[in-house]
Amino acid sequence: AGSKLREVFDKINNLLSGKPVQTEGQTVSVTQHPQGLEFVCYKLAEKFVRHGEGEVSFHHDSAFPIAVVLSGIWELHPRVGDIFLAHLHKKCPYSVPFYPARKEGTSMEEYQRMLGYEVHDSKVEEQDHFLKRMSGMIRLYAAIIQLRWPYGNRQGAHPHGLSYGWRWLAQMLNLEPLADVTAMLLLDFLEVCGNALMKQYGIQFWKTMFFIQKSYIPRIEAVTSSGQMGCLSRLKNFVQKCLRAEEIPLPKGILTPSFWRT
Known about the structure:
Strand content: under 5%
Family: Belongs to the GLE1 family.
Distance between the termini: 5 Å
Helix content: 55-70%
Number of helices: 9
Strand order of the largest sheet: 1-2
Mean pLDDT: 92
Order of helices and strands: HEEHHHHEEHHHH
Number of strands: 4
Structural class: mainly alpha
Largest sheet: 2 strands, antiparallel
Number of domains: 1
Subcellular location: Cytoplasm; Nucleus, Nuclear pore complex
Low-confidence stretches: none
Function: Required for the export of mRNAs containing poly(A) tails from the nucleus into the cytoplasm. May be involved in the terminal step of the mRNA transport through the nuclear pore complex (NPC).
Pfam family, one: GLE1
Protein name: mRNA export factor GLE1
């Protein structure tokens, strides 16, 4: 509910503003320790990324309520936004976007960590689980860049708005595609903020969609084995439908004005 989200936002904002906040039966304040504020900014940013790789990866719609709170907090407390990006880029290098190359002397285990895989006791997480986490984080990022906290002053610009999404898409299409990962990330990104990018960039956006269909999808196909076609087929269908309809559908779960009256 919108009212519940406002409560969550106010509590986080009060804590970061140095006001005492009630939690689990006790009162806490960042002023209780010299590094209190820095610690809270760090842990809060980390938690937002964890929501992306956890909750959002399983429930795509949850990207929007989480993102709108973070967007509002970022506006009022830029430090949280900076640390959030640092955590996000470390956990999901594709959010930069960046495909780390393996350097000489780097162990396979270390390299897999650089690629975003979780490695415990020399065991690497399964590909499906890895893709799900990356998907959740990209969806959260794509939701953040298009949302503003509706109760802010709205005078300034979005702290990390759609221009960053446009840049992400351009940079992504300049990278050599990877099997599995590239098709999934492009589809996630376009499903979540394609509609907002279309409204903002118009003809330039459609030129990009045409480029994806004619030039980039064949390049993804060239590196994709027959057993990895699922995501690529979905991306192809999505791009084809949008170009045919000359419209990108609104993302499922987007927060409508009526949501804030609940």
